[in-house]
Amino acid sequence: MKIAIIGGTGGQGLGIAIRFVQSGEDVIIGSRTMEKAQAAVDKVKELLEKDKIPNLKAAENSDAAKEADLMVLTVPLAAQRSTCLSIKEGAAGKIVMDATGPLESAIGGSPTRCLYLPEGAASERSQKVLPDSKVICAFNNISSGALMNFNEPIDCDCLISGDDQEAKITVAKLIDKLPGVQTVDCGPLERAQIIEKITPLLIGLNIKKTCKDAGIRITGIDPECKLY
Ligand SMILES: NC(=O)c1ccc[n+]([C@@H]2O[C@H](COP(=O)([O-])OP(=O)(O)OC[C@H]3O[C@@H](n4cnc5c(N)ncnc54)[C@H](OP(=O)(O)O)[C@@H]3O)[C@@H](O)[C@H]2O)c1
Question: Is the whole model's pTM more than 0.85, yes or no?
Answer without folding.
Answer: yes
